[in-house]
């Protein structure tokens, strides 16, 4: 159940926004072996003056931030990073313009159905 936020500093047509969301969705499904209905992805466009581009980056600078349950292997994370970069590349975003950050709060810090996630059957394996 990753919760993902894609942040950009320029406006894009709705078709491109949908393609970016789908790219992240497909990459996480494959890398983390998630159920197909697990899609919690937000797309946030900032005005350029509110989202300074780091040195060496272009107007395509894209920041992707994940909140994920702990337990995924380094290989699964590598597959996620590579999957996103590859799919974004097909949409014209260079690897040098992509930053991906994973946050892994413990299961006790996720509230699901009124309980800590550590006490809920999540319905999928975290150890991939």
Structure commentary:
The chain is an alpha/beta fold. It is 28% helix and 21% strand. It contains 2 helices and 6 strands. Strands 2-1-3-4 form a 4-stranded mixed β-sheet, with helices on one face. Helix 1 links the parallel strand 1 and strand 2. Helix 1 (14-32) runs antiparallel to helix 2. The longest helix is centred in the first third of the chain and has 19 residues, at 14-32. The two termini are 14 Å apart. The model has no long low-confidence stretch (mean pLDDT 94).
List keywords for this structure.
two-stranded antiparallel sheet; alpha/beta; single chain; 128 residues; 2 helices; 4-stranded mixed β-sheet
Number of helices: 2
Q: Classify the helix fraction into a percent range.
A: 25-40%
Shape: globular
Structural class: alpha/beta
Mean of residue pLDDT?
A: 94
Main sheet strand line-up = 2-1-3-4
Concise structural overview:
With 128 residues, this protein is of the alpha/beta class.
